[in-house]
Specification:
Low-confidence stretches: none
CATH class of the largest domain: Mainly Alpha
Helix content: 40-55%
Distance between the termini: 33 Å
CATH superfamily of the largest domain: Transferase(Phosphotransferase) domain 1
Number of strands: 0
């Protein structure tokens, strides 16, 4: 799970508005640095893109006081946000840490929060070397993913599932 994204969604729920609305990637980086402050050189190394590192290194923002940004928010919620929105992904809290955090502790029940048995396999992305994916392929991947998480959908009509997969395959073949 992407703790950064979950942290942004959490912040937006608290604010009742978007937190980081960048107009382009440089503006987005500027907003992140304004929020978190200029990262130290060790944290900057976690970014693989040299262009992004150089852009961030030029910013000199001290960061925003989360308590001021979220003035009517419980201290525990602000603390959890700080831990979820750390610049360096290696220093962000894990999902497990977030669920065990004091702010979420009364909702946390380890028995009802299963852990993934294996790491997410993103190897399918390697076939998209140009960064583009055909609409029909994306539709098929999305449909298949829905089936994985929806037993009810898969059981509704097996003929429908077969027909949908067949149509997606034919559509994909005709667009090649």
């Amino acid at each position: 799970m992407d703790v950064w994204s979950a942290g942004l969604i959490f912040a937006e729920l608290l604010l009742r508005k978007p937190l980081l609305q960048g107009k382009d990637y440089v503006h987005q980086l500027r907003l992140i640095v304004k929020l978190l402050g200029k990262p130290d050189p060790k944290d900057l190394k976690c970014i693989s893109s040299r262009e992004a590192r150089d852009a961030i290194d030029r910013f000199t923002y001290p960061g925003t006081d989360f308590s001021s940004l979220f003035p009517d928010t419980q201290d525990d919620a602000v603390d959890l946000l700080r831990k979820m929105l750390h610049f360096n992904f290696n220093k962000r809290c894990s999902v497990e840490d977030a669920l065990q955090h004091k702010y979420l502790s009364e909702l946390h029940d380890k028995k009802t929060e299963p852990m993934a048995r294996r790491k997410f396999d993103s190897s399918f992305e390697k076939e998209f070397t140009d960064g583009k994916i055909k609409k029909s392929k994306l539709q098929k991947l999305m449909f298949d993913q829905c089936l994985v998480f929806s037993y009810e959908l898969a059981m509704l009509d097996k003929d429908f599932v077969r027909a949908s997969r067949s149509a997606a395959s034919k559509s994909s073949a005709s667009r090649r």
